[in-house]
Every structure is written in structure tokens, then in C-alpha cells.
Amino acid sequence: MARPLPPERLAQIAEAAKQAFGRLGYKRTHMADVAVAAGLSSGAIYNYVESKEALFHLVFAQAFGVFAEGIPALPLASPTPGETVALIREGLRRAADAPLLRMALHADASADVRDELRAIVEEQYDMIERLWPVLAVIEQCAVDLPALEEMYFERARPGRHHGLARYLSRRAAGGQLRAMPDADIAARLVTEAVAWFAWHRRDDRDAKLFDDELARRTVVEFVCDALVAPLP
User: Tell me, what's the pLDDT at 208?
Assistant: First the structure.
């Protein structure tokens, strides 16, 4: 009688795969290397996932809580064409939701624009800090996967920039934020500052020079000081 496979091992495989895909991209990640990183023999990983496509799908299924109600039958089957991109698109839609920005876009003005802007930047910072390992996988692997490239770089990410740009433009038009020469560039500048300190600095040689909470507070206050218009 075959021994049951420990379900917690699937989470270890997903974590090892997430790190490998996020560092190496899709083509340069090998099943055997992920198996070793997860504490398995190179062949044992196929008891858990049927293929590299299934392994890639596992990363996002685990990250977005698809298995919250129970582990499916193992080995995980290879996804159908488009299934993984659909999972990523829906997972990002839920996990990267920005209710504070959305609410601000429905208001013509703010009673306290500094508090409003601070909350929006904190919301974005928290989201990137939470999701950066998954975003790293997406960005590293998109170059090898055209459907993922199109979904993320041509639709999802520009949509987030556009929402922030609309907010900055609307509050500037009302005299509550400083008017920038280009709202889209200003939104991208805010996003890149947030992304570097919440995410990319973790791979930088100087990462340990910055305290996490101080980095967060400094970025938020810097953006507010730069954009909030002075009182007349």
C-alpha cells in the first residue's frame, strides 16, 4: 500500500518554486533544483506536481489561497491553456484591491487631503510589501510567457498607475494637491518609490541599512510633503 504524501510538503515545494521562479524566471528554473531546495530527491517532486506548468500554477494557487479548503488530489495536474494566467489575474484583482483609492476617486474633494493621501500611499505600500514575492515571480517569468506579459504589463500594472494618476490630477485640479507637469509621471514616481523600499531594496546590497518601519514612514511622509499643496 502506497504511503500518503504529507500535504505540508506541498507548501514547501510552492515556497521553493516561488523563490526559484522569482530569481531565475520561467525557462531557467528546473524541476530538479526546486525539488532539492524543498528537501526532495529530483524525482520525488513528480509525486506532487505533474509538470513544470503544474509547479508554476502551484505557486499562485498557494499564494492566493486556492487550497484553503483542502489539498486537491496529488500529483497536481498540468493546467489547461490560460488557466494559470486567469488565476493570477483574479488573484491580483482581489489581493491588490485599493478600496481607499477607489473611495477617494468617487469624492470631489477631501476634508483632509494629507490624511487621504497618506492613507492611499500606505495602502499601496502595504500591498506591495505583502505581495512582492508573487510580483517578483510574475515580472521575472513574464518575459518567457507572452500571455502573462500581456495580462500584467499591458493591463494590470498600467491600470494601477492610471488610477493613482487620476486621483492626483483630480485633487490638483481642486487645488488640494500640487499640480505636476504630468500626472501619469507623478503617479509612476510615487509607485516606484514605494516599490523600491517595499520590495526591490530587499535584493539590494544596502538593504540592511534601512529599518522596515522607518522606510515605510519616510516614503509616506516624503510623498505627502511633496504633493500636498501649501495652505493659502
Answer: 80
